[in-house]
TrEMBL record, chains A, B:
The lineage of its organism: Bacteria, Pseudomonadati, Verrucomicrobiota, Opitutia, Opitutales. This is RNA methyltransferase. GO terms for biological process: methylation; RNA processing. It comes from Oleiharenicola lentus. Belongs to the class IV-like SAM-binding methyltransferase superfamily. RNA methyltransferase TrmH family. Pfam families: MRM3-like_sub_bind, SpoU_methylase. Gene3D superfamilies: 3.30.1330.30, 3.40.1280.10.
Length: 269, 269
């Protein structure tokens, strides 16, 4: 047991105000930290070696019986503990139905040099994803498909947005993600001998009739604008997913998972 | 031009109160109606032959210039018009950022006899989907994959939930959906000579190594419980999607789209 948790009841406490501010990207980036809310997400962060600096909890909101063990785990890796009143926690909670657990952890940044690629690299590159929920779902898809890493080009939403943390169901803590501009990403892939296959409706090549084996990066455009001109021109191959029905029935997250799993099918065959 | 729209400014107006109540399933089912909010959704509903009975609009919330034409279209198919004050519309709007357009339309119910199947039927069967957002996404996937129809077994969320309407981006108005209990659905599929392939982690058959051509219904379990014992025993074949990473990286909507598009690939081959 370490020192007791500091108690906070005032909504005017500077830490409370700081936690609210950290919902803004600028504030997160300046402070170099981000928030992880909820039992499942914090447990996964701890499992994956994320060390919270601060841990806020409020027993009035607890849903189960495992919270004290999680708090002790966070303390063991060096988190400073704060016990909040019900009202104070309601103010800092981002979720509609809080469970009384909120951790503040340092952001990290991976570079291309940090990436460990397998013998047959398999990467996902996403351009300028706007919606945090889509980015979270895309990270889950890359995890399920066994991608070595995800590369986010020219990001619009930041990786540490609370909705990315949540929608990724903890995958953010395990799948390596590198952020870069499209030109650098393209140059790096070329240098590594990794072929690029970009999805777009503007081609006649069907994705499932295109060879997706060997060192490969699948390139996905943004929600609103689709594939950029840069990748339209730079990708080694363009592929199309055949679609029945309404033109917009497949969103970017859905198109990503279809393409990834076709690659998995071919690569395991 | 028909009669002028009736103006409503009071938050106590019975129609305002009724619209708020219609967010509840029981109220919707009793009244036999549902709500369609937003320009895109209402336009698609009108395109697909849905005839709103009532149409509520509030110019203070309009985002563009095409709203009057949409209102006239609704009037032309018999909708009674109501012009709401900004406050009154804020009260009935379901969305966080309303666009001043809300239609009330009659629910419909399709039976198996209504379904028109092609020469090589391709159906999706979902068990007890709980989250409206998932059901909406699943409807979009079935549309994109060109399914003849979606069958919802033992539903938990109702088809006419505002979040299903929204998440389906209008596909609810075009893809035929039938609701039934699992035993009846199974009997009907048998009678029609449609083979059933159910997805579950509890099999060694890989989905992509299983023949998904010919008359086929893909069966998906619920979010929380997966495939029911009924379908585990009754399906003609069980198939598994191979997964790397975290056990829960694929949710039911993602698993559905992967399976549907593998079937599309095989069936178009």
């Amino acid at each position: 047991m370490g020192p007791p948790a500091e108690k906070i009841t005032s909504l005017q406490n500077p830490r409370i105000k700081q936690l609210v501010r950290l919902r803004e990207r600028r504030e997160r980036d300046e402070a170099g930290v981000f928030l992880i809310e909820g039992y499942r997400e914090i447990r996964r962060a701890l499992e994956k070696g994320v060390s919270p600096k601060e841990f806020y909890f409020s027993p009035d909101w607890f849903l189960g019986e495992n919270e004290p063990a999680l708090i002790e785990q966070a303390r063991a890796v060096g988190a400073q503990l704060f016990e909040l009143s019900k009202d104070a926690f309601a103010k800092v909670a981002y979720r509609e139905r809080p469970d009384g657990l909120l951790a503040l952890a340092p952001q990290w940044k991976r570079s291309f040099d940090d990436l460990k690629l397998g013998a047959n690299p398999f990467l996902l590159v996403c351009e300028s994803i706007e919606k945090p929920g889509n980015l979270g779902t895309i990270l889950r898809s890359a995890d399920a498909a066994g991608c070595d890493a995800v590369i986010v080009c020219d990001p619009v939403t930041d990786l540490f947005n609370p909705n990315v943390v949540r929608a990724s169901t903890g995958v953010l803590f395990s799948v390596p993600v590198v952020v870069g501009d499209s030109a650098s990403v393209h140059a790096w892939l070329k240098a590594k001998g990794i072929r690029t296959a970009a999805t777009t409706p503007h081609t006649t090549n069907l994705y499932a009739q295109t060879d997706l084996r060997g060192p490969l990066a699948i390139i996905m455009g943004s929600e609103q604008y689709g594939l950029s001109e840069f990748w339209m021109k730079s990708a080694d191959v363009l592929v199309r997913i055949p679609m029945a029905g309404q033109a917009d029935s497949l969103n970017v997250a859905m198109a990503t998972i279809i393409t990834l799993f076709e690659a998995v099918r071919q690569r395991s065959g």
